[in-house]
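User: Is it possible to get a 3D structure for a protein together with its bound compound? The compound here is magnesium ion. I've pasted both below.
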Amino acid sequence: MLFDPNVFLQQLVSTDYMLGAALSVAVAVLSLVLATVIGFFMAIGRTARQPYLQAPAHFYVWFFRAIPALLVLLIMWNALPQLIPALRADWFSPFLAASVGLGLVEAAFMSEIIRSALLSVDDGQALAGRALGMSPTKVMVKVVLPQAIRIALPPTGNELIGLVKYSSLASVISLRELLTTAQVGVNITFRYAEYYAAAIVYYLVIVSVLSFLQSRVEKRFAWTSRTKTTKNLTAAMEANTVGIS
Amino acid sequence: MKTAVEPAQESTVTDPSPREQTLPAHAIPAQPVLQVRDLHKTYNGNAVLKGVEFDIARGQVKAVLGPSGSGKSTMLRLMALLETADAGEILLNGTRIGGRTHRGHSVHLPERQLAMQRQDIGMVFQRFNLFPHLTAVRNVMLGLTSVKGISHHDARSQAMDMLAKVGLGNRADHFPSELSGGQQQRVAIARALVLNPSVMLFDEPTSALDPELVGEVLEVMERLAETGMTMIVVTHEVRFARRVANEVTLFDGGVIVEQAEPEQFFTNPQHERTRKFLSHVH
Ligand SMILES: Nc1ncnc2c1ncn2[C@@H]1O[C@H](COP(=O)(O)OP(=O)(O)OP(=O)(O)O)[C@@H](O)[C@H]1O
Ligand SMILES: [Mg+2]
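Assistant: Yes, that's possible. Here is the predicted structure of the complex:
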């Protein structure tokens, strides 16, 4: 059996693949959002002085770092509805289960990224904010967080790309994301090479687009003015950023 | 030598001699802006402040000299309410700040109340501590918008005025990374000043600067002093202390060793410790 470009191209433009790719990206984005929110509070907890804030955050990270994502997904989809009748309803879809499951696991890793980003902001920054009379919340939101985000952006971009790939685990809970779509097609036609090749193209495109978006966002955090006098400097910095990423 | 110094130190701290309290007639104040009473601070068993006492009157400039590690920064951080004292009181315009007395015990105020009180005390740091993610004008605006609740539009015009006063009207939209150290420190001064504090505290404001940039910052501070701002300046700039300060203080070992008018302080210090310190600086 030779590689049939027609089968390959047909799949490349098929709605099944596009839908699968969209689902993969959606699961990744949604779980990253969830992971960032949970991870932020876990990071705050872990940097807090109070033991009643530290302990739960430590427990969370310890627990979800140890459990395989696959197991979490199986629990989300199979075990939880047995225990919680409300989850047997239609609204609890594989998509939701996958996003929440991956989000819970990813939060343990995001909390590490956010924690080290918060810690790497110079102490003098919070000190200056407090000296102006800003409340602790204002200091966090207006002074520390914007600087921590800049530090956290590159590793978070990596995590998002990782999540796109991890979304393929959701095949075990019958979510028809990108890889499941390919696998289903293969099971019917046995045209492994063509179907898998189409999947490769999609993953490459997705990750390239995400990397591009990431570098765009990172540039917004360059913190240099774009006046005429600094234009050359800015251009040089941008060239650098592109070179690295 | 050491034994000769210590009794003198003791007597200055607990019982300043009348000569040192006598200021020229025109400088005698109605009410002190800031009063510090018997301030103590210990870090992990290391006593850094051991009973600091002084007053500063409205419009006065106090220069604080002293060797490294003597507790000067700690004293400023305590006065700026950025850290809590173990004992002692700070009064701003006659009102106690940072703590209150509850059933005969001194208790610290909660962070929210401290934040309110900090608005009235300006602090300038050795390493500027400008917010790198904000332009110069936005650095100056932040206190106005997020602390005083002033609208963006009004805050911007106030901040622009303040930047013009420190000679940086044309750098308003530059980020800190695009400014020289001297320019950054002037923005930091504007940022503190725009909140219209009762007193400005400077912690070695020129120590992190290249020598050629020191002058522009000292000039801004001198002009600020001329407008009648009450200032406490921890510094190694003897010339500045001599020309601008009304009173010079030697701080050592967590206590005030000597406190005198500049002329007296530099030409005829009363304490052996001061003489020794000055011989190292000159
Ligand atoms: N947060 C802290 N925790 C523990 N020790 C501290 C802390 N801050 C200051 N110290 C100690 O207190 C002492 C006085 O420090 P401080 O910074 O007030 O001195 P300084 O007079 O400002 O010195 P320098 O001229 O070097 O700035 C030092 O021995 C320092 O190690
Ligand atoms: Mg210091």
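Chain A has one domain: 5-244. Chain A has a mean pLDDT of 90.
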